[in-house]
Amino acid sequence: MNRTRLRFWALYLTRFAGGFGFITLVTLLPKYINELDPTALVLPELAIGGLVLGGLTLSKGFVIGMYTTGFTLAQTVAVVPLAWAGDRYDKRLVLAGTVGLGAVVYALFPLVDSSLSFVVARAAQGIAVTGAGLMSLALVGELAREGTRANHIGKANAARFAASILGSISAGFLYDAFGFTPIFIVITILLTIAVVAVWVFLPPDETTVHGFPFTNLALNERILTMATFRVQYSVAVTLVRTWVPIYAGVSAASGGLAYGGIAVAATVVAEKFTNMLCQPYTGRISDQYGRARFVFVGGGLYGLIALAVPFSPAIGEALALPAAFPILGPLSPAFLPLVGLAGLLGVADSLREPASMALFADEGTDGAGVASSFGIRELLWRPGSVAAPLLGGYLMADVGMEWVFYVGGASAITGVLAFLGVLVWSHGTSALTQW
Question: Among its keywords, does the record have Membrane (predicted)?
C-alpha cells in the first residue's frame, strides 16, 4: 500500500472512530437520563455590586435539554478558533490533539456521577468532535487532487456512516451485557489507535495561512451562493432526520405509527446504510460531471422524498403490503414504505453531501484556508439545526405530525431553488454544469 493511500486510510480511521464514539453516546443518552435521574437545580444567590439576586431554579426539562445543548453550544464556540488554528499552524497537530482529547474525555465518562459533570463532559466531547471533524475533512480535501476530492470526501463520510450503523446497533447490546465502562474502553482504544495512525502516516502540515481567513472566505462569491442553499437545507435535514424515527415510534395519538425499538432502528439504519454505500460513488461522479448539479439534484430529491413520508400508510395499503413480520411482529402496511423512503433519503443526501463538501474544500485550498472554509460550512448549518427541533416540536404538538415533513421537504425545495436562482444570476446560466 503506497504512502498516499495510507494517509487517506489514517484519516478515514479518525472519521470512523469519531463517528463511533458520537453515535454510541447518543444511543446511551436515555440510559444516562435514567442513571443520573436529573432533577430541578436551584442555583445559589449571586451578588452583583450591591444587588443580591435570588437563587434561580432550573427545571428538570432544562437540565435534560442541557445534556444535548451543552454539546451543541461547545461545538458552535469551538468552530472558529479550531479552524483558525488548523490553517495558521499545523492541521495534523490540531487533529491529533483533538482526537487525543476525545480519547481522554471518553475514558472519563465512566466517572460521571451527576448532571453537572455529564454536561461538562459532553461539552468537552463537543470540542473534540468538532476539531476532529473539521481537521480530518480539511486534510482529506487538501491531500486529494481537485479531480478526486469529492470521491475521497465521500469515502471519509462512508467511514463515518459505517461507524454510526455499528455504534447504534452495538451500544444497546454492549450496555445490557457489560454496562458503561467497557463501551468507553473500546471507544478510547479506537481513538488512541487513530491518534497513532495520524502521527505516523500523515506528514506535518506545511500550509500556513496568516491573518484571519474567515474574513476573506465569508465574502467569497461561491460560498455566499452555497449559503443560500445550506441555511435552508439544514432545517430540512434536521427536521426529517430527527422526525422519521419519532414518526415511526410515537403513539398513534401523537400522530405516529407506534412501532417498537427494532422497527424504529430499521428506519434509522436504512438512511445511513444507503448513504454509506452511495457516497464514494456519487462523490466520484460529481468529480467528473460537476458539483453544483449534484447539490441541486440531491437537495431537490431529498425535499420530494420528505414530502412523501406522511403518505407511508396510504402507500402500504395501496400496495397491499404485509402488516406483520418475523421477529418484528405486528406492525402495519406502512413499515416497508417508510423504511424504503428512509433509504431513498440516504441516496438523495449522498448525491448532495460529497459535492457540497468538495465545493467548500475547493474554495479553501491554494492558500485560502481549507479548515476555515469547512468552519464556515459548519457555522451555516448551526442556525437551522438549533431552530428546527423547536419548530418540529411545535408542528407535531399543535398542527400535525405530517406538517413536520411538509415543512422539511419545502425547506429543501426552496433551498435548491434559491441556490439555482443565485447561481444563474451571479455566475451565469452555465454555472450549474461548470462548478
Answer: yes
